[in-house]
Amino acid sequence: MADQVTGTGPRPATWLSVDPAGATALRAARCGTCGRRHLPARDRCPWCGSDELAPELRSSGTVVAATTTMLPVPGTAGPFHSVVLVDLGDDLVAAGQADEELEPGTLVAVAPVAIGSGDEAVIAHSFVRADREDNAHA
Ligand SMILES: [Zn+2]
Could you tell me the distance, in angstroms and rounded to a whole number, from the CA of residue 91 to the centre of ligand 1? Predict the structure, then answer.
C-alpha cells in the first residue's frame, strides 16, 4: 500500500473517515449509473456493474432498532453492549455499538471507537447521542 500511515496507534477501518479535526463519518458511495447507494463504499456497483461511484460521507442518523447484549465484544470493556441499527438516510442502514442504551428515534452521530490493542488495534465506528456535549468535536 502506498498510503500507509507511519504514525503509531490504531488506524481507521477502511469504511471510516476520520479527518485531522476528529470528525468521523462512514464512507458510502452513490452509483452514477443506477443511483443506488452502497455502504460501505465500493469500487463497482453490485447491481449494474458500473464503476462510476461517487463517494459520500454519513456522519449522523436515527436509531431504528436497538438491543443490549451480554456477550463479550473482543477489544472492548464492559459486560454489556448496546447495539443499534441506524438509518443514515437514502436507504442506508448501519449497525454499530453505542456507549449507552438508546431508544428508536434517537438522533445519533458517528463516533470513533478503538477496538483491539497493540498492532491489531483499529478505529471502528460507534454511535453516540447527537446532542451530547462531548460529541462536539466529532
Ligand atoms: Zn449501479
Answer: 14
- Please give the distance, rounded to the nearest whole angstrom, from the Cα atom of residue 43 to the centre of ligand 1: 11
Cell numbers for 135, please give them: 460529541
Rounded distance from Cα 40 to ligand 1 centre (Å): 14
Q: Per-residue confidence of the chain (138 residues) as pLDDT tens digits?
A: 333 444 566 788 889 998 888 789 999 999 999 999 999 999 999 999 999 999 999 999 999 999 988 877 666 666 677 899 999 999 999 999 898 899 999 999 999 988 877 888 888 899 999 987 565 444
For the whole model, what pTM was predicted? 0.81
* Nearest-angstrom CA–CA distance, 83 and 79: 13
Of all residues in the chain, what percent are helix, strand and coil, respectively (each to 5)? 5, 45, 50
Ligand 1 centroid vs 101 CA: distance in angstroms?
A: 36
**Residue 52 C-alpha to ligand 1 middle, in angstroms?**
8
Quote the ligand 1 centre to 27 CA distance (angstroms): 17
